C-alpha cells in the first residue's frame, strides 16, 4: 500500500493515497485501518476522509465490530457515482466505448463499426457519436465525468497523443487523436497503446494484487502483448512496449511486411487465417473476389471479420481443414508464449480482445498442451492460460481506468 506523509503541502497527495487504499480493499476500510496501512496519523486520516466524503468520492458503509469492547468502526468504501471516465478502443474492425464509474464498473457501453477505409476523420466522427451516447446514460452526472481515455494501435507518441504510422491502419498516420478528442468533447483526453490499456484493465480487476507478474495477449485485428511486472503495468521507455509481431515462430511461414517469413503477428492474425481458409476452401470469397491459390488479396476489415467468424465456427464444428488452420496458429503461439514466459519468469498468461472469443475454446484446450510438449529447457515451470476477466471491451475499459488512475492514484505513472 502506498504510504502518505503528514505534511499540509501534500494534502492532495494524501487524498489519493487514502482513496487508492480504499479502492484496493475488498470490503472497505475503517479509519483506524487506513492510518495503519498508509502511515498517516489518525488526525490526518480523519481530515482526508472528511474531504473525500464531502467530495462524494467515498461513502460510509455501515459499522463493523472488531470483536472487542468499544465503539464499532465505520467502514469507508468508494462511492461509485463519485466520478466517471470514458474509455474508447479504436480497432480497425470495431469502435468500442465504455463509461466506467469510480469502482471500475461498466455503467454503459456501445459499439460502432469502424469505417472500412480506416479514414481518421470518419473514425473520429463515429467515436464522438459513441461517446455522446454513453454520456447520455440516465442517472450519470455529467459534471462528474473527468476525462476520456483512448486505446489505439501502436506505435503512439504518448506525449503528444499522436498515433504514429500504425501498420494495419495507414489512414491514421500522425493523427493528433488526443487533441481532436479533447477539443470536440471539452474533456481532458489521453491516448495509450491498446495492449497497455488491456493490461491496465486486467490489473484494475485484480486490485488486491493477487497476480504480480503476467502477460496479457491482445488478440484483435493484430496481436500485441501487455505486461504486468512486479504488480505494475510496464510500458517501456516510450510507452510502446508489447510490439511482438516480428518475433520469428514459423520459419518458412507466411511472408510478413518486414520481408521475413513466419513472424508471430503475421502467423496468427485473423487475416492470415482467413486467407488460409480461402485457399483451402473452408470459407468462400465474397462475390466478385478472385483468390488465386497461395496469393494474398485485399479484403476490407468487415469482410475479414465475417470470414474469420465462419472459419472459427467451422473449426468448432469439427471441420478438419479449419481445425488445422487454427491449430497451426496455436502451435506458433505456444512457441512464442513459452519463450516469453521463460524470459520473464511468468506463470500466467491472459488472453483477450475483440477477436479472442471466436478462438477461445480451442486455444484454452490446446495451447497448454502444446506448451507442455515444448522442450523443458525452454519452459521449466507450468504456465496458466486463461481468458480475460474483463471481457471483450478490455482495452476500452483499460483506457477509462487510466483516466481514473491518473486522477486518483498516488503513483507517479506507469513504468
UniProtKB/TrEMBL annotation:
Q: Which domain of life is it from?
A: Bacteria
Q: Which Gene3D superfamilies match?
A: 3.30.420.40, Winged helix-like DNA-binding domain superfamily/Winged helix DNA-binding domain (1.10.10.10)
Q: InterPro entries recorded for this chain?
A: ATPase_NBD (IPR043129), ROK (IPR000600), WH-like_DNA-bd_sf (IPR036388), WH_DNA-bd_sf (IPR036390)
What the entry lists under Pfam families is as follows: ROK
In the record, the note on similarity to other proteins reads: Belongs to the ROK (NagC/XylR) family.
- PANTHER family assigned to the protein according to its UniProt record, in alphabetical order: BIFUNCTIONAL UDP-N-ACETYLGLUCOSAMINE 2-EPIMERASE_N-ACETYLMANNOSAMINE KINASE, ROK (REPRESSOR, ORF, KINASE) FAMILY
Q: What is this protein called?
A: ROK family transcriptional regulator
